[in-house]
Amino acid sequence: MPNEWITQQGEVVTLGGEWTLRHYTELKHVLKRREELGSALLSLPGFEALDTAGAALIVELLGIDKTKQAANDLPHAQQMLLIRIAEAMEAPVESTRTHSHRITDALASVGRQMVAMTVQQRQLLAFIGLVLATFASLLFRPRHWRMTATVAHVQQSGLNAVPIVALLTFMVGAVVAFLGATVLEDFGATVYTIDLVAFSFLREFGVLLAAILLAGRTASAFTAQLGAMKSNEEIDALKTLGLDPIELLVLPRVMALLISLPLLAFVGMLSGLLGGAVVASLSLDISTSQFMATLQKDVSVTHFLVGLSKAPVFAFVIAVIGCLQGFNVSGSAQSVGAHTTSSVVQAIFMVILIDALAALFFMEMGW
Amino acid sequence: MNDRSSPTSQKCQSKEAVICVQGLVNRFGDNVVHEGVDLTLYRREILGVVGGSGTGKSVLLRSIVGLKHPNDGTVEVLGQRLNALSGSQRSQIERRFGVLFQRGALFSSLNLQENVALPLIEHAGLPREEAEYLARIKLSLVGLAPQAARQFPASLSGGMIKRAALARALALDPDILFLDEPTAGLDPIGAAAFDQLLVTLRDALGFSVFLVTHDLDTLYAACDRVAVLSQKRVLVADTLERVAETDDEWVQDYFNGPRGRAAQRAADTPSSKE
């Protein structure tokens, strides 16, 4: 098939036409069919158009040395380009790609993930230690307390989260009241719906829902903030200025959550009870005054304290995981995403795990 | 200054103009960066754009490639107004650009050869293997070792990132190359090689280059014309010799300061240009 790129007349092979990226696929196709150029005499009178892709094809076809010889007849500009490309291709351009899809790889990957998990847990423990040590060393040096940063974080993670926490717990409170009413009605014990809502919200749901929301809302924010700083070398800059990133960045965040979460948990409890009370008065014929009276009579303050005692623990875990994941970010945008996901998942997992263990503990203690 | 005295509308109609900026105004709030910038980039020329820090060199570049919508004035690129085009037409024009950003702007989740291969796959429609092969040639062309092709941007030095970003800007053999301080952060040897590579590629591929720089050596070694941004407009755009003679304090300090004189001496010794 005749084409504009390679023409042969007797012994002389002429290259010409447009050797450009636009024709790359066709050119490749043509070249594949005539690999033998052998000892034919080459003639390169000049190309209509030549770009780096075309030049690479010519070097591929002729080899590096022959290209440099043949380029002599070309116009200066095209000659220079061919020579530059030929020089660029002198270094081995082919790369070694290791392909392997064996079962051993799958096993190795499982192993790697297990190791990574243990490393992660150890790292978390180490980081907790570091934060506590820094905290202890600053405890009696109020000059190093970063009040402005702490207050700013309290606003962002605490105050700004009040509406969503209140709304969510209100709705869950209503749902629990409905659920209780449905089951207890069979026993004629609808009135115990009050106890159900009160117990569940004071002991568990108030603090748990607030903590889960905070894990999703704030742990991710901490990771993204610190991760962006890390990839921008801001954290390295702090270190070289002789400042402690734990003191400047982590402690204010931990402190802020230690203040915010108990308050949010309290908001959650109240709002959950309110949801229960609204459902009780509207559809169960339990008046609000009866609701309040039963609350006072049946539910001791211990339950409230049990629930609230978990809040600082959750807050600490969420803040520490968010910050640690932020510090682990390495450079790329993908890494920021991966660590943000990981921080939310880990924080929620740890919150629920600790809650389960705490429930067991409190039950054994009879509190 | 004869360049500015001719009416600008004529310049835009001439076939040789690939970029034509007229009366460009850019503001950020109350901060006026450009107030009536006129600038033309001709086919096959390398235009150096200089100016003190904060005179809006990068903003000008961003206005031309369409990343910033100018507050007033027109920008014509390859005979078209980018902002007046539909999305697909605009993409057609944009793939004829190659842009090297100041900090490289390599995609951090892709390794170097994937970075360079991306436009080849998306716009030239090459199969992945072919695109990555060509990408490795381009990386080698800008002076990166073959092992670097599989590395990720996060693990590279600043100079290597600059080179890889140039390789990506060159991926589609563009008609216009925009370079934002390409030699900043390169060692002098690498910077000189960069200047030479730029001239070679321009001669061979015939593209035009819009080069924002502080590097006096690059101006002397590579640029055909130099535009000086000052006092919110283009003070002068002409050959280096004429620009250096301009009666302006900043221009005199720039070209006749110690660094300017050193660069001039280096350029006067033969072999640095062609």
List the helices and strands and how they pair.
The complex is a heterodimer of chains A (367) and B (274).
Chain A: E1 6-9, E2 12-15, E3 18-19, H1 24-33, E4 41-43, E5 49-50, H2 52-62, H3 64-70, H4 76-88, H5 103-138, H6 147-157, H7 162-185, H8 193-231, H9 234-240, H10 245-283, H11 288-298, H12 301-327, H13 333-365
Parallel strand pairs in A: 2-4, 3-5
Antiparallel strand pairs in A: 1-2
Helix pairs in contact in A: 1-2, 2-3, 2-4, 3-4, 5-10, 6-10, 7-8, 7-10, 8-10, 8-12, 8-13, 10-12, 12-13
Chain B: H1 2-5, H2 8-13, E1 17-28, E2 31-42, E3 46-50, H3 57-65, E4 72-77, E5 80-81, H4 87-94, E6 97-100, H5 112-122, H6 128-141, H7 158-169, E7 176-180, H8 188-205, E8 208-212, H9 216-222, E9 225-230, E10 233-238, H10 240-245, H11 249-256, H12 258-268
Parallel strand pairs in B: 3-8, 3-9, 6-7, 7-8
Antiparallel strand pairs in B: 1-2, 1-4, 4-5, 9-10
Helix pairs in contact in B: 5-6, 5-7, 6-7, 8-9, 9-12, 11-12
Q: Based on helices, strands and strand pairing, what is the structural class of chain A?
A: mainly alpha
Q: Biggest β-sheet of chain A: count, sense, barrel?
A: 3 strands, mixed
Number of domains of chain A: 2
Oligomer: heterodimer
Which of globular, elongated, flat, extended, rod-shaped describes the shape of chain A?
A: elongated
Describe the structure.
The complex is a heterodimer of chains A (367) and B (274). With 367 residues, chain A is mainly alpha-helical. In chain A, strand 1 (6-9) and strand 2 form a beta hairpin. Helix content of chain A is 73%, strand content 4%. Chain A starts with 5 loop residues before the first strand and ends with a helix. Chain A folds into two domains: 6-88; 112-365, no CATH class. The two termini of chain B are 27 Å apart. Helix content of chain B is 42%, strand content 23%. In chain B, strand 4 (72-77) and strand 5 form a beta hairpin. Chain B has a domain at 2-96 and 174-268: P-loop containing nucleotide triphosphate hydrolases (Rossmann fold, 3-Layer(aba) Sandwich).
